Amino acid sequence: MTTTEDAAGGRPGPASRAMLPQRPVTAPEGLTAAAVRERIAAGRTNVTSVRTSRTLAEIVRANVFTFFNGLLAALWVVAALTGRWQNATFGGVVVANAAIGIVQELRAKRTLDRLAVLNAPRARVVRDGIEREFPVAEVVLDDLLVLAAGDQVPADGVVLDSAGLAVDESLLTGEADAVAKDAGDDVWSGSIVVAGQATVQAVAVGDSAYATRLSTEARRFTITFSELVSSTNRLLRAIAVVLVVVGPLVLWSQFRTTENEGWREAVTGTVAALVGMIPEGLVLLTTLAFMVATLSLARRQVLVQELPAVEGLARVDVVCLDKTGTLTYGDVRFDRLERLDGSAVPEGQVRGALGLLAGSDSANATAAALAAAFPSPDGAPVDTVPFSSARKWSAVRTTTGSTWVLGAPEMLLPVPAPGATGQARTRSDALAAEGRRVLLLACSKQAPAVLDGDAVLPAGLEPVALVVLAERIREDAADVLGFFTEQGVALKVISGDNPRTVGVVAASVGVPGVTGAADAVDARTLPEDLEALAEAMEAHSVFGRVTPHQKRAMVAALQRRGHVVAMTGDGVNDALALKDADIGVAMGNGSPATRAVAQLVLLDGRFAHLPAAVAEGRRVIANIERAASLFLVKNVYSVVLALITVATLSAYPLEPIQLTLISIVTIGVPGFFLALGPNRRRYVPGFLARVLRFSLPAGATIGVAAYAGYALSRALDPGDGVAGARTTATVVVLMVALWTLVILARPLVAWKLALIGTMAGIVLLVLLVPAIGSGIVLLEVTPRTLLLAVPIGVAGALVVEAAERVTATVADRRAGAPVGGHG
């Protein structure tokens, strides 16, 4: 291997032997129990600082020590100094938000950590002469690791012996080609074994291993893009800027106005204005929505390895499916052996050759099926070429000088010819057209050659027999694919198997536009240019004989066309494509490398869980949109009121306690239920634009209406004073904000009507019971107050309704979509 260097960052890559520490070679029996204990005591284990979830301290810190919580705490202290305890009650909302966030995240952490243990990768290690499986974290320095195809290398090591070992290091270096490894070569943690077997001595573990030292390029838990998180963060940054600009102006105006009788009133008005601008529960509800979705999926045995992946799956518009292990169960079994005419090889030699081939690659599912049918004969082969997804064949050379090759018929016999060769191709094509998996067994007197570090087929191959394998199609596959088709999601079946076989299976499970073998494309005919490949991907739905490199290219080509791509798979040949896809979905019984790079893992291997995952994503997206709209409406009318009071040098129209009431009944409680309730609305791009489209006119209307109520009360009933005018403004805000809640809650099913009715009932209770209204919320409710406030509130609600209908109609016409609201 040669040294690689990241030109941008100057980071050293997998390279020369000198980069790894020199260690005494471990004996073939592996470490003793005493040596393992010694290394554990010295901390030389494979435990890393990279975690899949936050610690308790990090959870508390994230929910308590935030910019907005700090600002609210400071405002609470200031409000408490005024001596009116009611105006400091908003501090209780802050505490409740933090407590709910901590409790829910700890609950989610416990559940997800338990599931993560089920999905945790394991390593095969030789200790005291016995090969055992251990969690990867329990590997210690100098352990002997037994690697096979499908494994992700758990620690940096040196190859002690190799049987055709080839690893893919593209997760570390970006280089797409597999690298052959012989005795004495280095292997690097994070790389994936794509062929062969080897014994490797671990020479760098834990945080000293190469993959752990990489930043995000090679780490297992990268962050999926989240439109919701990104948009919410943009909103929070904008609100923070507004606070910094408007806050000092409000403070100045409240001390300058003659309507405030002293410093306490000025401070109270400033606190009310600033508290109204702070979205204290928005981040909490966003996090809770993701957490609840994750826990719901966990109950279905779906492990979410990145929270935003729940949202991401709902945004997907193309799903790429591997056939084996996804559309089928992946439990390949031997069906029958068909001898070819003209082959004089005795039956015993054929069966013995198949036994040797099966025994040479135990990590391969096909080899395992053959091993069950053909016991390995006595004696080891002289040489082996392990199966590779890129080559699509394996070989053994026996002591008699014969080379036996087993692989895809069209790869071993690429050009049809007369005689046995022609018969083999004709018969294999016919079997593939029936949906069978077919392998060709061929024999040669020549040994496989090596070209550019990779094995090539021996000359003089003679077809001997066809090996017919059987797979079971998943009973739920057709329903799942039907669901995605109904949702307008394009389906692409990409498989390494014979195109005819793949086409038949795809047709049987209802892939749109596929009627049988003739509709499948042989990937060997596809162009390498991404743009041309994207054209082919758009035009066809089924592809066979796809190499791992092509799977990655297919994902990239679709993404280049603007598609959000999900990739499902279970084999090592799917791992790199899963990592490149926007959302990778792995089967729980798949290879460790595939599970490691996927964002979602179906632990019980049930493909039928995918629609539920999509539904959870849709619920998260649609409900957070509602919650964000509610919060932003309050922020907007708070800013509008603040600017009006600055311009008019009047007292702020609301007390902090009144804002607390408004927040609880029109935002906090209903927002919580709306964020977590069911919602099957399809994903539509433009989350932030829709939130702003609704919130800006609605918030501006409420702000103007509230100040109109305040100003009219001061003008028409000056005897009621500032307290009476604030009561009028509070009633106006409550009325229009409740109607805003009605709009956002549509369609109004029973539980939403009950929610809105309960919030309205609380408002009536506050207004009609003096002990609450006057004693706690500082309202002075009189018939004249209600007579003035109700018409303004109704007018404000009508304006909000009209604005929503107009803006929704304009937006839908621009998008070419049916006119509709937030439902």
From TrEMBL:
Predominant localisation class: membrane
Quote the PROSITE patterns the UniProt record gives.
Answer: ATPASE_E1_E2 (PS00154)
Keyword annotations for this protein, in alphabetical order, are: Membrane, Translocase, Transmembrane, Transmembrane helix
Q: Which domain of life is it from?
A: Bacteria
Record InterPro entries: ATPase_P-typ_cyto_dom_N, ATPase_P-typ_P_site, ATPase_P-typ_TM_dom_sf, ATPase_P-typ_transduc_dom_A_sf, ATPase_P-type_domA, HAD-like_sf, HAD_sf, P_typ_ATPase
Q: Name one GO molecular function term.
A: ATP hydrolysis activity
Report the Pfam families cross-referenced here. Answer: E1-E2_ATPase, Hydrolase
Q: Where is the composition biased (Low complexity)?
A: 7-18
Subcellular location, record wording: Cell membrane
* Stretches the record annotates as Disordered: 1-21
The membrane-spanning stretches of this chain are 59-79, 85-103, 235-255, 267-293, 636-654, 660-679, 691-712, 724-744, 753-779, 785-803
Instruction: Give the way it sits in the membrane.
Output: Multi-pass membrane protein
One of the record's GO cellular component terms: plasma membrane
Domain (P-type ATPase A): residue spans on this chain: 118-215
This chain's protein is named Cation-transporting ATPase E
Organism of origin is Blastococcus tunisiensis
